[in-house]
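DATA SHEET
Item: assembly model
Revision: 1
Owner: S.N.
Input lines:
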Amino acid sequence: VQIEIINTGTELLLGCILNTHQQWLCRKLSDLGYLIARQVTVPDTGPAIQEAVREALERADLILVTGGLGPTSDDRTRDFIATLLGRKLVHNQTVMDDINGFFARRHRATPAHTEVQALVPEGALVLRNRCGTAPGLAITIDAGKFKPGESWLIMLPGPPNELHPMFDEQVAPLLKSHLPLREPFLSLTLNTTGLGESVVENKIASPLKTLVDAGLEIGYCARPSEVDVRLSARGAHAKQLISQAEQIVRGLVGEYIFGASNQELPSVIIGLLARKHKTLAVAESCTGGNLAHRLTNVPGASAVFLGGWITYQNAAKEKFLGVQAKTLAEHGAVSEPTAREMALGARTRMCADYALSITGIAGPGGGSGAKPVGTVFIGLATPDRVDVVQRFNPLDRETFKYVTTQQALELLRRELLG
Amino acid sequence: VQIEIINTGTELLLGCILNTHQQWLCRKLSDLGYLIARQVTVPDTGPAIQEAVREALERADLILVTGGLGPTSDDRTRDFIATLLGRKLVHNQTVMDDINGFFARRHRATPAHTEVQALVPEGALVLRNRCGTAPGLAITIDAGKFKPGESWLIMLPGPPNELHPMFDEQVAPLLKSHLPLREPFLSLTLNTTGLGESVVENKIASPLKTLVDAGLEIGYCARPSEVDVRLSARGAHAKQLISQAEQIVRGLVGEYIFGASNQELPSVIIGLLARKHKTLAVAESCTGGNLAHRLTNVPGASAVFLGGWITYQNAAKEKFLGVQAKTLAEHGAVSEPTAREMALGARTRMCADYALSITGIAGPGGGSGAKPVGTVFIGLATPDRVDVVQRFNPLDRETFKYVTTQQALELLRRELLG
């Protein structure tokens, strides 16, 4: 099944907006076993949209088009594609009822200009929108019109909160029934932290060689402080191949695997704390709140995360966390003893089971010969001791903050598992 | 000048990685006055890359190709394009010296497999890479080979920290000298917060009509809690048109304009505090550290941002910020009086000039009939009083946190200007 994605929107090509649809749709489709051959972004104009769709129709079995289904004057994807395909637009009462219901639930009258969204190309399947007003539209294109076989064109609304549920609830089932894979497909992604991409590859590639010869595919995806290993296979033996490969990978790098299927480390931590009925506090200097921010992005974090301090200044470290003036004077704010006292103070004062502390130099300024930019100490206070590790993350400021919080969370994860 | 962007990388089409090059390059190019006609992502394979490049060469005057210039086995963009264009790859000693220097500065021997990066297509201009090992390559393609006029193809390395300086320092000047705009171009983006897109448009569109008739272009870009107004013009009168338009827009919605040219609100706040020699502390509940995180993303924040508290629990609000038990019992944690006492406590205890407090319900759980999910109170303590505003942000958790911190920062911005 040859798949292409077309994102429409002049704002994308002006750089106003980051295109997150590409990654989201590609990940969803590849998890289902479909490969995407090409992704294209074009402006909102008729010739640009029609040319991109016509070219894709000559190659692809499925074309996903996003954006331009709204009620405003630059939302014309529906018209342009109907014209290209020679389909009339007809008023669809089910869609109109959905639109009226959407506004009624918000105690508002249906604005007149939204009625254009109830126009549907002849013969199109309507994908109802439970989070917005523009329906998705799925059209089958007869074999021979553009390419030898039949193809599907599916238009999806641009807002992510409308597109995501529509894809999961309606497009994915439609693919399974109308564009099924020739063979069963399975994939498993294992998320690791603490090893570089080449190290992970060196450890697992040879031991997996026999399985690869039998049809296993391995993919590596490296991001700051994370390497994802994607195992996939097709055919009758897919399940067996993946399960054997998982066992081998876990045997070789198991301690670095913090999750599967693109879990994020903060949600793994919140889950572990909840399961053990334990609580956490944090004391951050150079990460400036990012550790707390990432933890509180997880719904339900408040059950186990009690809170924390951002103590940028020495005075605050003393006054609020009980770091001793002597420690700061003798060792400096960026030091093992300061990290230790910060963690201890945070744990005691917040009455938490665990506390993480971070003190370091994020840069770009503030470094010295002995403590260059990127130097950081991470403390973990547990019910019976305090551990401190030193790390060196000479990265740009935002990546430094992210990688450092990742290292702190990993320190806690290993403690909670150990 | 017709421009197309080709991003290469199988990992992009598997959804492993978010494509940030599109937005970054599009914004840079549109700020220089160039419009991008199309962006394409293709996998790392020879046929896919060559087909995309061949198609683009039939249309575009400039093609920017990103990725696939590294030293590993799947980095083959250079070869595939050289083959397509019928150019031999020749060893370039300047590039090899740069690569050797890169590793020497890191006290490492040059790995043998990096030598492939010193291969340069015959006649290509080398764009030296001061942040990595793969050089950029700019090639002119003779008129008539693919399309009537001459065109340029520029290959750029994938890592953003290499691509960004190479574009700014070498590609932008190359465009100005070799692919100049026919007319002078100017643009100005004004960043607003606090008004919806249609409200901004309703206020300024009619008053700008005369200037639009004279050649002014207006673009709107809406993001959560921000609407950017982009004013641009070409030709001899561009400067005058933009300056008149700016005056009109500032006259109508000036109080909502917090910056220009895509400044971010936290960096505006840090700048205002620094200029006034004032300091800030924060006390966050439902935003869980995001306010502090955003402020500390700004280099130099430590000069004016003293620190803060994340007080998820009532006990922490009492103990660390001095919120009275009576206040919490009578009004609840999400209330005007609690926000007031949090801001006051944070300002006093941190000895800061200003303090911001946030208490609310981020959701998805925790709402009630009287205080539904999205309810939030924001406090601002100044040297002589405490203001509290109530907002309602019924959004997903992460957007709630972002929009709420934006509202808090805007409250402080108006105080600092007033």
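QC remark: DSSP finds 15 helices and 17 strands in chain B.
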